[in-house]
Design goal:
The structure holds two protein chains of two kinds.
Chain A lengths: L8 E5 L4 E6 L9 E6 L6 E6 L4 E2 L4 E4 L5 E6 L8 E12 L2 E5 L4 E6 L1
Parallel strand pairs in A: 1-10
Antiparallel strand pairs in A: 2-7, 3-4, 3-8, 5-6, 6-7, 8-9, 8-10
Chain B lengths: L4 E3 L2 E4 L5 E6 L6 E8 L3 E9 L2 E5 L6 E5 L5 E5 L8 E8 L10 E2 L3 E5 L1
Parallel strand pairs in B: 2-11
Antiparallel strand pairs in B: 1-3, 3-8, 4-5, 4-9, 5-6, 7-8, 9-10, 9-11
The chains are: A mainly beta, B mainly beta.
């Protein structure tokens, strides 16, 4: 019942920009989009989040479309250490006063030398 | 600041046993969430505790339970273990409620193997 759709895998050349898309067409107006990544055998690492405007931090940039139905995570200069599974997450209503964060399957980004 | 710590890192149990996993959040964080990660199902939300109260829960059977102490440390218990409970159990802490939007910071996980 994930509310996000991401490609299963992507490749990127080292030093190039990696652009990872995410579709979240059912997102509500006040729900944030979060991006995490998980390097093999480690816990997920927070990257960035946003609501409406584009966001940038030391790790990445997040571009959210005006209708908020999709977003793109940009790693401007990918390195081999950026090889990981990238998760795009929104909050899902699960009944009563409950919400849960649904991670989905994520995108395996492989950065090649 | 020290990150989220989880103990033990690895655990082997047999079917029918019970297990308790521990999580110490980042200092000052009041929310602890638990997740189960398996190759087939990916990352699945178990529950979230905030100020010693369970505030949100996922779709797991009652064999999975948790609690949070006054210092925000949390434990997760799984009773009557089944083979399908073999997974990486991840704990995440956040300053406020994660399901209200606060950023989560994950620990390294506990790898549980049920034989």
């Amino acid at each position: 019942d994930a509310k996000t759709t991401q490609p299963t895998s992507m490749d990127c050349a080292e030093g190039r920009a990696a652009n990872l898309p995410c579709n979240h067409s059912t997102i509500s107006g006040n729900e944030y989009v979060y991006w995490y990544r998980q390097i093999h055998s480690q816990g997920p690492q927070y990257i960035i989040h946003g609501l409406k405007n584009n966001e940038t931090n030391e790790m990445a940039s997040l571009i959210i479309t005006e209708d908020r139905k999709s977003s793109t995570l940009i790693l401007p200069h990918a390195t081999l250490r950026d090889t990981a599974v990238y998760y795009c997450i929104v909050r899902v209503y699960s009944g009563g006063s409950n919400y849960k964060l649904t991670f989905g399957k994520g995108t395996l980004l492989t950065v090649n030398p | 600041k020290a990150g989220v710590t989880q103990t033990p890192r690895y655990l082997i149990k047999t079917r029918g046993q019970q297990v308790t996993l521990s999580c110490s959040p980042i200092s000052g964080h009041r929310s602890v969430s638990w997740y189960q990660q398996t190759p087939g199902q990916g990352l699945q939300f178990l529950f979230e505790y905030f100020s010693e109260t369970q505030r949100n829960k996922g779709n797991f059977p009652g064999r999975f339970s948790g609690r949070q102490f006054s210092n925000s440390r949390s434990e997760m218990n799984v009773s009557t273990l089944e083979l399908g409970d073999s997974a990486l159990y991840l704990c995440a802490s956040s300053p406020g409620l994660a399901t209200y939007g606060d950023t989560q910071y994950f620990g390294p996980g506990t790898r549980l193997t049920v034989l």
